[in-house]
Amino acid sequence: MTAATANEARLEVRSGPLVGAVLGRVVGMLAARALCPIDRLDDALLITDAIAGHAGDFAVGGRVGVTVSADEEGIALVVSPLVAQGGEGLLAASELPGVGNVLRRVADEVSTGRSDDGSEELRVRVAFHP
Amino acid sequence: MNEGPLGKMTDDHTAEPGAAHPPGQELPDHPDLSLTLPARAENVAVVRHAIGGLGEAIDIDDQTLSDVKLAVTEACTNAVVHAYPDGEGPLEVTVHVRENRLMLVVRDEGRGIMPRTDSPGLGLGLPLIATLAEALELGTDSEKRTEVRMTFRLDADEVAA
């Protein structure tokens, strides 16, 4: 158990329907506490659904880990640990026909990379006032 | 909290001092859900809300879910109020769903469960949890973290029988 910053939560969930049900609630609570505008809350929950729908395919050990943090500027989700190339895979899986990539279209920042412990991760940030 | 285990309370509310988590009560390796966040008052609502999402996903009946949410709220509130008198630390809630049982564990890295003459509360939290849950165990884990383990039956018919 590692100490989290003030408005941050670390969630690890077995892949499946639990991910979306729980992650959406946590994102909603932290966003509301950070006074997220309602339109951006909708966007954050859309991103949450996209992540919840596909992260299980790229998560290590069939367990989806997401760190959610919110401040007065926005809310960030970091999905980790992912399998090799899992960040790009998760990003690609968020492509919708006729819509494009949900994560890239809705989020203000999207990136993949490695965390401090060397594991693959996907980072998504939604700014409250872009 | 005492350094050692405190024992457990079963559904007849009989305290059984001894091993904190006796054989048969061992938790599976990986919880279905783990949520870690700072032990702050506002985060109790986050935990409660997350448990609501869990109940929705695994279709827990309303009465049981209400009991679970109340019990986990009490356990988390205890951690917030008592665990870190000189600062702040983490609060972890894990959930295991196995064979019509829901096992919740609330952990902190604070000073542990001990009597307080200056307690701001009424001291009803743990008895309330013991009433709501099928089983309640208090103790420490292998990393010396304070644990409150609660088990709930998910089969409403079994509860009524």
Structure overview:
- The complex is a heterodimer of chains A (130) and B (161).
- Chain A is α+β, with helices and mostly antiparallel strands and 130 residues long.
- Chain A has a single domain (8-127), classed as 2-Layer Sandwich (Heat Shock Protein 90), CATH 3.30.565.
- Helix content of chain A is 36%, strand content 32%.
- Chain A has helices spanning 17-33, 38-54, 86-93, 102-106; strands spanning 8-14, 63-70, 74-82, 95-96, 100-101, 109-114, 120-127.
- Chain A has a five-stranded antiparallel sheet with strand order 1-2-3-7-6. In chain A, strands 4-5 form a two-stranded antiparallel ribbon.
- In chain A, helix 1 (17-33) runs antiparallel to helix 2.
- The termini of chain A are far apart.
- Chain B has 161 residues and is of the alpha+beta class.
- Helix content of chain B is 33%, strand content 26%.
- Chain B has four helices and seven strands, in the order E-E-E-H-H-E-E-H-E-E-H.
- A seven-stranded antiparallel sheet of chain B has the order 2-1-6-7-5-4-3.
- At the A-B interface, strand 1 and helix 1 of A face strand 3 and helix 1 of B.
Annotation keywords:
heterodimer; A: 130 residues; alpha+beta; Heat Shock Protein 90; five-stranded antiparallel beta sheet; two-stranded antiparallel ribbon; 7 strands; 36% helix; B: 161 residues; seven-stranded antiparallel beta sheet; 4 helices; 33% helix; disordered N terminus
String of helices and strands of chain B: EEEHHEEHEEH
> How far apart are the termini of chain A?
33 Å
State the total count of DSSP E strands of chain A. 7
Sheet having the most strands of chain A:
5 strands, antiparallel
Order of helices and strands of chain A: EHHEEHEEHEE
Low-confidence stretches of chain A: none
Looking across the biggest beta sheet of chain B, what order are the strands in? 2-1-6-7-5-4-3
The CATH architecture of chain A is 2-Layer Sandwich
Q: Whole-number average pLDDT of chain A?
A: 93
Regions with little confidence, pLDDT below 50 for 5+ residues of chain B: 1-6, 10-20
Q: Mean of the pLDDT scores of chain B? A: 81
Instruction: Tell me the number of strands of chain B.
Output: 7
Q: Could you say how many structural domains of chain B there are in total?
A: 1
Largest sheet of chain B: 7 strands, antiparallel
Q: What's the helix count of chain B?
A: 4
CATH topology of chain B: Heat Shock Protein 90
Give the DSSP E fraction of chain B (strand runs of 2 or more residues): 25-35%
Spatial arrangement of strands, main beta sheet of chain A: 1-2-3-7-6
